[in-house]
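Researcher: Here's the sequence for the chain we discussed earlier.
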Amino acid sequence: MKRYLLTLTIALCAITLKIEAKESMTSLTNRVMSIAVKHCENMDKALEPGRSPRYFGEGKFADKDIKWWCSGFYPGTMWYLYENTGNEQMLALAKKH
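Model: Thanks. This is the structure I predict for it:
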């Protein structure tokens, strides 16, 4: 499941980014991971304590109380990013949320 989510994340980011044909998978993965880290850091700044991101669409951001059943996806993403990048900031944010 973990590998599936990571692969899906990389694939979705790859679709939205211009990928050069000569870019190695390692380079692509590192680039996508660094973008994902930046997104999580920005999301942390946007969230009030006790809130979890719900969706972003049509130019609007919506959050939800952390008692919402999906509230674990956001910190789970940061745990995966920490596991794959070793970025201590992701570890701190995962524990925070």
